[in-house]
Amino acid sequence: MLSKNILIVVFFIIRIQCEALNYSFVIRSVVGDPDGYSRLVIIVYDAKNAIPKWDRQRPFPAPLIRARNGEILEIQFTNMLRDQSTSIHFHGLHMLNNPWMDGVEMITQCPIHIGETFTYRFNLTQSGTFWYHSHSHQQYADGLIGPIIIDPKLGEQDPILERYPYDNDSDYSIML
Phi, psi at residue 115, to the nearest 5°? Predict the structure, then answer.
């Protein structure tokens, strides 16, 4: 009976360590005119949506990624750009014990070629506001940028909320 209980505990610990918060995005070139002139721009949308939701004048930024410190984040990107490879860098996030997830093309990873999918998987070890963007070509200027918010671990107080309390229900993410 004791060995059965130990096996159950070990299985539970392994299950906790393996579960990840999952996102799945598609990167695509479309015609847009965010600055008043029509040209190809890049949109990123949730792969679960068959039709991307975006505004022709304001297709940026890419969707918000929100997680909690201590979680494992798994983000899948499918490159459907017309003529470019890509990679995604998670700006400011520590890639402890897995630097190959840092997303710098031809330095820490191979590019994600057209039609291919790559899954980034890493542990979150800090809280704060960050951003993700392409390190390929000038894709971040064409729209391949998005916000990341990493909330404190459950049970930990947010230091900003301690000093400047506000209503979380009216929380908005703005990228300038």
Answer: 85, -5
Residue with tokens 């999952």: 22
DSSP single-letter state for residue 97: T
Give CA–CA dist 89/115, Å, rounded: 19
For the chain, list the domains and their CATH numbers: 21-48+58-168 (2.60.40.420)
Give per-residue pLDDT as tens, 56-77: 555 678 889 999 999 999 999 9
pTM score above 0.85: no
Give the pLDDT confidence score for residue 173 in this predicted structure.
Answer: 75
Buried b (16+ CB within 10 A) or exposed e, 99-120: eebbbebeebbebbeeeeebeb
HSE on the CB side for 26, CA within 13 Å?
Answer: 15
Residue 46 pLDDT greater than 90, yes or no: no
pLDDT band at 6 (very low <50, low <70, confident <90, very high): low
| β-strands 21-32, 72-80 pairing | parallel
Q: Show the beta-strand stretches assigned E in 33-176.
A: 39-46, 65-68, 72-80, 88-91, 117-123, 128-134, 145-151
Q: How far apart are CA 112 and CA 110, in angstroms?
A: 7
Lowest mean pLDDT among 4-13, 78-87, 114-123: 4-13
